[in-house]
Amino acid sequence: MTAPQAAVTAQPAIELVDATKRYGDAVALDGVSLRIMPGEFFCLLGPSGCGKTTTLNLIGGFVPLSSGELRIEGRRVTDLPPHKRNVNTVFQNYALFPHMTVAENVGFGLRMAGVKGDRARSRVGDALALVGLTAFGDRYPGQLSGGQQQRVALARALVREPAVLLLDEPLGALDLKLRKQMQLELSRIHRQVGTTFVFVTHDQEEALSLATRIAVMSDGRVIQEGTPREVYYRPVDRFVADFIGESNFVAGRTTSDDGRGSIAVPGGRLPMADGGLDGEVDVMVRPESVRVSAAPPPDGSAALRGRVVGVSFLGSYTRVTVETAAGPIVAAPPTSDGSRSAALDGLLDQEVCVWWLPADSVVMRRG
Question: Rounded to an integer, what distance in angstroms lies between the CA atom of residue 69 and that of residue 45?
Answer without folding.
Answer: 21
